[in-house]
Amino acid sequence: MATPVFLCRDGELAEGESRGFDPWNDGQDTVLLVRHGGKVHGWRDACPHHGGTPMAWRKDAYLNYERDRIVCAAHGAQFDIASGACVLGPCLGQSLQRVELMTTTEQHIYVCPQGQEET
Length: 119
Known about the structure:
The protein is mainly beta. It has one helix at 114-117, and strands at 5-9, 18-21, 31-36, 39-44, 69-71, 78-80, 86-88, 101-103, 108-111. This is Rieske (2Fe-2S) protein.
């Protein structure tokens, strides 16, 4: 079984904040985290409509102005933070791909490697 990969400490991600990570050293962020409603949500940084294109318009900029939806900068699709479902834009009926997260008793957040391999 592959070892989970450390992303950040829980306290480093504030409410209403998003952040991208490159846990598998692909040369670009492939995982994004968002803290919303006190919970950290993890998603693959790949738009389901736009060929898996990374979604941030600049480093760690994944959210709309209200900070209540994830937005794809390539075409403006908006996704529900908790479910990953597209709620606005050309990919209605599609969803972001969730990654499995693990938080330790020391409040360190890890991504589980199978999150990279899911399709």
